[in-house]
Amino acid sequence: ALEPDLAGRHVVISAGGTREPLDPVRYLGNRSSGKQGYALARTALARGARVTLIAANAALPDPAGAEVVPVGTAEELRQAVTKAASGADAVVMAAAVADFRPAARSGSKIKKREGQEPEPVRLVRNPDILAALSAARGAPGQLVVGFAAETDDVLANGRAKLARKGCDLLVVNRVGEGLAFGTEENEAVILDARGPETVVPRGPKDELADRVWDAVVARWSGAPPR
Length: 226
Ligand code: C5P
Hints:
about 230 residues; binds cytidine-5'-monophosphate; globular; FMN; EC 4.1.1.36; about 25% helix; alpha/beta; multifunctional enzyme; single chain
């Protein structure tokens, strides 16, 4: 049996992928299934944590015992995470957040017209929620964890991203070759801004989730991560 080493802790987890509407029926989205974020929620609950799960368009059953807050867009996710993060011990941003959204959202369905070229879609940047949470912590000593999907130079890109975002831990996923998005397995390196990196070999998403909580617990106990 697992030790309840997260007992008394409140953790906030974002999961899934945001959708940015173009009109009432269409959106710009991504292929994130939410499985890794839900695995983080389940394992945290099993280890005794109180869990708030900010779920962006994930078609998955609610983990028993979690407070689930459904969201659609990056802006909704930003508001929900920021609110939940107030007073939380840790925030884990596992959601795939759209970097851009359409500058305008049409109130009615965009129509194709005979003999007319479609209108170009102008995009504007979404705020970087992880960077903002890292810069303004929701509680003293709050731990902020990010995720990053990389295909090449995983470690170098991951280290640079960890520094740029200002979070404490960054879980760098290897994507491609049947890994990560929508699959049951993951392979990652957990980077610690103050410590060594932990290589997590290809395996179930619950396994990676438990290694992430190990790294979080190691930070809280002041010990170097395994
Ligand atoms: O920069 P990149 O998208 O690779 O960073 C991924 C990490 O940043 C994830 O933890 C994701 O949840 C977070 N993110 C965010 N806000 C954005 C884009 C990404 O919080 N606008």
